[in-house]
Write a structure and sequence with these properties.
Length: 234
């Protein structure tokens, strides 16, 4: 039957694995959140009425709140990752400290982000509620900078390794192909980080970017993350 063919299709099984993961749902919601942020700004600039813009504003706000709830407790994951990176003495010292800085930045960001949500949702009001949100953005910004520095250093080391490869030998060709894949993964991650860094940088006033640019940048980084998780759940 047609119904059976659809139900038991491998793509359906893949989709179920994807939406069953918290990371998969988060990236899907994040993509829609930042796309709505872009569309809301675009439609406003084009002069559309508020009843047309309102649904996108609602998606932006509600999905942002939903994702904050989903992230509660995730800070411990990054604290553990920071500890593991610090203990990994076999890792290049520069990459090790960049990894530690990145993970501690994300840990601090998610910690303040959860506290900020408690304040904004009215569950528990803090006297410095707005400051919590600012500190969360600042920690995220620092974590992303560490990630970008680590990415730039990785590209440098990959280039140095590539110079020492004899590409005429079979083993050299295999190593060369491996380096190409590592470079592609690093560049993709750096593109995602550059897009993401516009969000805290704009919120903190470090750069003057409108919601259209931030929304599009967030959409691009979300799609990169969405694709990565889709592949992992294959």
């Amino acid at each position: 039957m047609v119904a059976d063919s659809l139900v038991y299709h491998p793509t359906v099984a893949h989709y179920i694995r994807f939406v069953s993961s918290t990371a998969g749902r988060d990236k899907a919601l994040r993509t829609l959140q930042y796309l709505a942020r872009f569309l809301s700004f675009y439609l406003l600039r084009k002069g559309y009425k508020m009843d047309v813009i309102a649904p996108f504003e609602a998606i932006k706000k509600q999905f942002a709140s939903t994702r904050k709830v989903m992230r509660i407790g995730k800070n411990i994951e990054h604290f553990k990752a920071a500890s593991q990176a610090m203990d990994n003495k076999s890792l290049d010292p520069v990459l090790r400290y960049c990894a530690v800085g990145r993970q501690l930045g994300y840990f601090t960001y998610l910690t303040f982000d959860s506290l900020s949500f408690l304040d904004s949702s009215g569950i528990y009001k803090f006297t410095a509620g707005k400051k919590l949100a600012a500190e969360a953005y600042r920690a995220w910004f620092v974590g992303l900078i560490f990630s970008l520095v680590g990415g730039a250093y990785t590209l440098y080391t990959l280039r140095e390794r590539e110079r020492g490869i004899v590409k005429t030998i079979a083993e050299g060709k295999v190593e060369g192909e491996k380096l190409v894949k590592e470079r592609q993964a690093t560049v993709t991650q750096m593109i995602s980080d550059v897009c993401d860094v516009t969000i805290p940088a704009s919120a903190l006033g470090y750069v003057a970017l409108d919601d259209g640019i931030v929304g599009m940048a967030g959409t691009v980084s979300s799609l990169i993350g969405l694709q990565a998780i889709w592949k992992k759940t294959a």
